[in-house]
Amino acid sequence: MARNSVSLSVPEPSWFTPKRLLVIFCVINLLNYVDRGAIASNGVNGSQGTCTSSGTCTSGSGIQGEFNLNNFEDGILSSAFMVGLLVASPIFASLAKSVNPFRLIGVGLSVWTLATTGCGFSFNFWSITICRMLVGVGEASFISLAAPFIDDNAPVAQKTAWLAIFYMCIPTGYALGYVYGGLVGSYLNWRFAFWVEAIMMLPFAILGFVMKPLQLKGFAPAESRKALISMETAIPEVQDTEALNVKGSAESMKEEFGHTFSKLKCALFNLNRFSRFTKDMKELLVDKVYVVNVLGYCAYNFVLGAYSYWGPKAGYNIYKMSDADLIFGGITIVCGIFGTLAGGYVLDLMTSTISNAFKLLSMATFVGAIFCFTAFCFKSMYAFLALFSIGELLVFATQGPVNFICLHCVKPSLRPLSMALSTVSIHIFGDVPSSPLVGVLQDSVNNWRETALILTSILFPAAGIWFIGTFLHSVDRFNEDSEGQVTEVDRSNTTPLLGPKVAEARESSGEP
Fold it and tell me: Which of 92, 150, 211, 436 is buried deepest, with most CB atoms within 10 A?
């Protein structure tokens, strides 16, 4: 009887199961990259106005045509989000130690929703550029915290596969964005693409504030620690506490949004947190395994970022593809899904170790680069599509392994910062400069085939950098914090809080 009362008095977890958590995070990630693909599509991005030698001029279309942007300015639009990402990523990663990470995601997605709405109302180059910067804030909160949540709750034998499923949404989102942007631009107006995205993201932004907050391995805000300690030491009082919580739930929910922002404001000026942040940054930057992994990722993302933005235009100009958005979108969806999933499952079959991840990264990228480079050498569109598809399939196999290394070469308390720094680095040294630089290169050489070959060749150095990683001494530090090095967290909080852990533990030990 006592055992039954204990199990009933323990607060039940939220309706989130690990699989539901994965699905929701995948949908959010998908929407994030649909936005990227949409702004790169011919339907939304559009084209410049042209004039013939006889003086006949045609007006441009989409963003580029309406705001009269050159290729360099057009490339900046794909990179503007980096400003918000660069500023916000380390802040969100650092605040995860004092503010519940799931609430931080809610804050970021709210900013993302408002910024995307603003893109639809933009009136010139600078207004849409500022809105794109704010979009980066939303990505900063989500990307740096979602992957650790998934890694916490994935089955041990399927961690890389679960990460692969999550990161599969990047190429899939881009591809759907191409198709979505092309259709909206053709039948409505490019502004509607952003408004619909905002409407679709709004429920997830609200979810971050109204549902029971989740905790990360190695982290627990002070109020969460007190609640768990109280539950373990005063089980008979839980029912009374629950009654009080139910009575005040409506009032506390009303104050949740304002309370979270208040915490953010106070935390920014806390000198101790800044000192801890710099110490954590130093620990990451002296880790050879982490640095080599991120350097290879930067070179890889330089190519993939330019592919995603300029691919449809290059295909249209080189091979006269009338439906470049649909063709590139279709290839990217198929190759992105199967390639990313295959990379995760192959690494799990090889046994998920950091050394094996480096081997898979270097080999898949090298062989994929050969196929992609050869594809652009052919004049036949069908030969290009066949070879380029195989190359993309191999190149996308890196998504699971590269993020597995980022999460497992550092201790759990550093994982949000590890993901944040990785994300900032691959953008600031990868796809952010690549889009405008490729635009400058194309303006100079005026030959899309030559531009594509030069860009694709950068995949070879990426494979070489990851090959160096196979010779580095590496240690999987996933469980290091639970061995006595937990940062600001009670030892009992080092497991994910998606299930009734306390009740299970008590029942299994036979305690009343």
Answer: 92
CA distance 93 to 417: 5
CB contact at 8 A, 463 and 362: yes
Query: What span, in angstroms and rounded, lies between the C-alpha atoms of 137 and 85?
Result: 5
Above pLDDT 70, what percent of the chain?
74
pLDDT of the residue at 350: 84
pLDDT confidence bin for 289, thresholds 50/70/90: very high
Q: Is the pTM above the cut of 0.85? A: no
Q: How crowded is the C-beta side of 246, counted as CA atoms within 13 Å?
A: 7
CA dist 182 and 415 (Å) reads 37
* DSSP code, position 412: G
Is the alpha carbon torsion for 9, 14, 17, 18 positive or negative? negative
Q: Are 119 and 38 in contact (CB under 8 A)?
A: no
Average pLDDT over residues 354-369: 93
Q: Are 354 and 408 in contact (CB under 8 A)?
A: yes
Q: What are phi and psi of 478, to 5 degrees?
A: -60, -40
Helix (H) or strand (E) holding 57: strand 57-58
Closest alpha carbon to 49 in 24, 36, 66: 66
pLDDT tens-digit readout, 5-58? 444 443 444 566 778 888 888 899 899 889 888 887 767 877 766 666 666 666
Residue 325 is predicted with a pLDDT of 67
Both tokens of 210, joined, read 């109204």
Angle at 507 between CA 504 and CA 512, to 5 degrees: 135
How confident is residue 511, by pLDDT bands cut at 50, 70 and 90?
A: very low
Residue 58: which H helix or E strand, with range? strand 57-58
6, 500 Cβ separation under 8 angstroms: no
